[in-house]
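One-letter codes give the sequence; the fold follows as tokens. Both lines appear below.
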Amino acid sequence: MEYTLFEKKKKSLQIFLETQSFTGVQKIAEKIADDFLKITDERPQIVNTLQDTVSIAIGTYGNSELIDSLCKAKVLDAAKLEGKREVYVHKLIDHPCKTGKLLVVAGSDKRGTIYGMFSLTEYFGMTAMNDWGDVAPQKRKLLTIPESYEYYSKEPSVKYRGFFINDEWPAFGTWTTRHFDGFTVKMYDHIFEYLLRMKGNYLWPAMWSSSFLLDGPGMASAELADEYGIVICFSHHEPCLRSSEEWDLVRGEDTKYGNEWNYFKNKQGLLTYWKEGLKRSGHLENMITIGMRGERDSSMLGENSTLYDNISLLKEIIHNQKAMIRECVKRDTDQIPMMLALYKEVEAYYYGDETTEGLNAWDEL
């Protein structure tokens, strides 16, 4: 048997979302309301009171009175949500306010809830390629769901899933400059939406000619990513939450940062630069790039340096960066995710050789 959620000119959709819901979840609720508009030509109203006209209820375990009460009453299985990472449930239940049914979308956390919301409209024909490939959903006058419908997603097997906007010129750069006046938050909102619809959670922003933490304008793009639960990480040669283009804006012999992108020659200037970056955006959900390499994919100590010299210098850099991260980054968890990306000119530092121990044998890494 099928239960009718929506029928053209007969039964409208209405979405319930509590006022204390995460702001990112509230913003995604507006997006799925737009999805339903594209599918049915009618945009659901979003309400903060559970009433008999509500057909879909959305909430996050531990952040929603409704979801927590449904778990306590064993309508939802709390064991499949509590402590789980990025899990969601869809379940058609008896409506608390009337005779009929209520479709519940609940997440174990913020990302789980968002995935559940986008999965719901995908169930009815929406696609992540609507924005990127002009793939419009098929129009529907009737939306139904099995009366016994219940689905719990599994925890993702890969913790961080995303992509790097690399080599962005001319195609991507031209597109975002033409439509969004640059690498702004208006553009990244589309990127974030696409990533979340694809069940991603991780992004290296474009970096050839832009600074993610400046071009939002300001930190607007980073703050929106945090609202949506997207983990931001900078590329392989942009440590401690600072972009390479930003360095070019602040460097100089007469500045506190100095002019050389070289730890051996400009240790204090670079430590100051990195520490300020960690203080500025370390409170957001990031994966922090550590290590260092020379400018424009080059080696730092030059051709005449030994493998031992380079590994020793990199160990000192990483040790000091991790000390700053512990000092500056305020997190609820003791585990702050960090990444060392080994590109071609520093790969040898990881493995070492017959006479020189590499980073792979270093306990601190």
Observations:
- The longest strand covers residues 88-94.
- The CA atoms of residues 34 and 43 lie 6 Å apart.
